[in-house]
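User: Working on a comparison across species. This one is Interferon regulatory factor 10 from Labrus bergylta. Can you predict its structure so I can line it up against the others?
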Amino acid sequence: MNMETGAKMHMKEWLITQIESGKYEGLCWEDENKTMFRIPWKHAAKKDYRQTSDAALFKAWAVYKGKYKEGKDKADPTMWKTRLRCALNKSADFQEVPERNQLDITEPYKVYLIVHDSEQAKPAESQQTKDQIIIPVKKSPTIAGFQEKQLHYQKDSFQESKEEAKPLTGDLLKEHLYCDLTGHKPQNQDSAPIAFINPSLTITDFRLQVMLLYQGLRVMKVTTTSLDGCFILQGHVPVGNERIYGPCTAQQLSFPSPTSVALPLAMVEAMNRLLCHLERGVLLWVAPDGVFIKRFCQGRVYWSGPTAQHTDRPNKLEREKTFKLLDMATFLNELQSCLQGKGPAPSYEIELCFGEEYPDPNVPKKRKLIMAQVVPLFALDLLQKFHLRN
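Assistant: Here's the predicted structure for Interferon regulatory factor 10 from Labrus bergylta:
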């Protein structure tokens, strides 16, 4: 269908026509085979933003869909952009290619792949038995060939025992802990090697304790309940964006209003400006091989934690890339060394700083506008079992 027959084109046909027309600055093919294309993606808050050119394509789509009438409706470039973005995300004809996006340059753009009909077939869903819980295991960037798969756990492993626990002391505690961590009973109580931890220990507690702080003041403390982890973001994840954001069942933790705490007006205004850039937020989750994060928001995010490269200068989370914040094998090895008296207790606390460089030796963290402290509860529980943390 096309405009010549009087019928409207589908989005794919319309968009290809716009690319081929050459009317829109920055809208072009990404490859010679014309399977991918670039869309200019400059934020309206940029100083060099020009509505006539930077919003031209978004405006054209709004006009085409009858959502904007020149001279009658108020111009709203942000809404135009949102409409096109949502249409792209909902359409089975397009798929964003995050690794090709360039959003931190002077003329930022996104790249989309045109999906052909043969590529749209969805794999059959596997059946799930009543006594199983299916946990998605994300790709680990540090393990070559690690494929996305599903692990099956018995529901009982996620339920706390209802039996009244008796306090364990001395050798009985050691035996209990050794069995807990290795799956074996020590042959000899006097020489129970409680420091030898099974490297294949399976983690069944995927909860995270998340605390949000505004200038060092706590505004939220939550223990997550979803096996898919949690989003920390401004607002809410839009419906129908699973292809971009990942699992829909991840718990959503929305930033509270800065007015919820007593802060100077200038700080509140600065936080509101920052929150505008955190709409897509970050996704955190626990997998059998560690704790992971993926940044989706436009605003920059910095962090510190067990696997951070630097402790005395900032660590930046690159957008649309998965980072491992805690490595399970390293954590267990360090725990074993600690129990043998060969090293300190392993670190497990993770800190995120939104919009400001962190760690920053020149600025204490209580002066940072927005921070999050994240604790994987499996690590906390293990250390508490061994009396390595109060």
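For your comparison, note: The chain has nine helices and 16 strands.

User: Helpful, thanks.
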